[in-house]
Amino acid sequence: SQTIHQWPATLVQPVGSPLSLECTVEGTSNPNLYWYRQAAGRGLQLLFYSVGIGQISSEVPQNLSASRPQDRQFILSSKKLLLSDSGFYLCAWGRTGGFEGYTFGSGTRLTVV
Amino acid sequence: RKEVEQDPGPFNVPEGATVAFNCTYSNSASQSFFWYRQDCRKEPKLLMSVYSSGNEDGRFTAQLNRASQYISLLIRDSKLSDSATYLCVVRGGSQGNLIFGKGTKLSVKP
User: Fold this and answer.
1) How far apart are CA A29 and CA A32, in angstroms?
2) Residue A97 Rama label (left phi>0; alpha psi -120 to 50; beta)
């Protein structure tokens, strides 16, 4: 069966510090991978998605970047965090060409102070 | 018009009540539809897909009206454990990615 792992679960970082969140998927190959953010009291916002190694599409201009160094690894980064980067970051995977929903990781709750 | 719009909620209902959630979407070319459930401070989890003919899973019934671009979720005999936020989700956008509504919070009281 497929599983998705995301870490860390919680993170408190000072303004201006770097960020690296990692997500890995097991039990499938060539998944589509997604990073979403959910700010307090708001809906899920798609940040980045990837259909393959090294292929990243950005949905919203951000202080963030994403990379996919391996087929089942997706990384969200920032060089300098802003207060507005606080939120609940969720990684998800879906089948290439599939019509099913996505499966989410357990999320990282980021607080920038 | 927002891509996916839902009742703002919150809905506070007693145990055993029937509750209905409504959702509209703007892109008539949308391909597939879902309801997700999100517990407080947790990740969203797929509750059920929504098919054109309507579908049922136990106490949950989902319906789709493509002509009206309208999706619904009905929960019968609600339980305390149904308390959560329910997200309406549509596959659309330029790349066919999932687009989430803001969700409707449900609180089931004893």
Assistant:
1) 9
2) left
Tell me which H or E stretch contains A20.
strand A19-26
Determine, for residues B44 and A44 on separate chains, whether the beta-carbon distance falls below 8 Å.
Answer: yes
Residue A111 has pLDDT above 70, yes or no: yes
Q: State the residue for tokens 């609940």.
A: A88
Collect all residues of chain B within an 8 Å Cβ-Cβ radius of residue A47: none
Nearest CA in chain B to A33: B97
Does the beta-carbon distance from B43 to A109 stay under 8 Å? no
Q: What is the pLDDT of residues A40-93, one digit of tens each?
A: 778 899 999 999 999 999 988 778 999 999 999 999 999 999 999 999 999 999
- Type of residue at A113: V
